[in-house]
Design brief:
Blueprint lengths: L9 H10 L3 E7 L5 E9 L10 E9 L4 H11 L5 E7 H4 L4 H10 L2 E6 L2 E6 L9 H11 L8 H17 L1
Parallel strand pairs: 3-4, 4-5
Antiparallel strand pairs: 1-2, 2-3, 5-6
């Protein structure tokens, strides 16, 4: 079954990124003020209230048919993140000419062939210079990791332990 909208392609791509340990956020504005369809990042362990270091950042552009358009957007995203991918439906990916795949490779952009039940990596993305600070902070803020607290069971255990300790004296 073919994808009708770009947003239908999001689920398999996000599942693939999350399986690799990434935290995904959709529609993140980049330096060029063009929204990136999916931005994913891996953060170091958080210490205190500081934003942890970003270990790896990936951008994925989704397109149903416009191969040149998705390549141009993915190349633009390389200035904001370390690796950039273009994701197109498997049916369109099968019809790509070798010349088109070579254009992705020359630009250092990865190519993903998306199906409803998963995806295939046709071409791995090359690492670029680094992540733009604005994309990094936006990714952290929108990921929900900044608001995560101790699990409720752990909070109750800590409260019970401190109550027992004060009852002893």
């Amino acid at each position: 079954m073919e994808f009708r909208y770009e947003k239908d392609m999001r689920e398999p791509v996000v599942a693939w990124l999350e399986a690799q340990g990434f935290v995904c956020v959709r529609e993140v504005c980049s330096v060029s003020y063009n929204p990136i369809d999916i931005v994913a990042g891996r953060f170091a362990e958080r210490v205190g209230r500081r934003i942890p270091a970003l270990l790896d950042a990936v951008a994925v552009e989704l397109k149903l048919s416009d191969v040149n358009g998705v390549l141009a957007q993915a190349v633009r995203n390389r200035g904001c993140v370390e690796r950039s991918f273009a994701a197109i439906p498997a049916s369109k990916c099968e019809k790509l000419r070798p010349k088109s795949i070579a254009a992705f490779a020359a630009e250092g952009v990865g190519l993903l062939s998306v199906r409803r039940d998963g995806l295939d990596v046709i071409l791995a993305a090359q690492r670029s210079a680094g992540t733009d600070d604005r994309v990094y902070r936006n990714l952290w803020r929108r990921s929900g990791l900044a608001r995560k607290r101790k699990p409720r069971v752990l909070q109750q255990l800590v409260m019970e332990t401190t109550t027992e300790a004060t009852d002893m004296f």
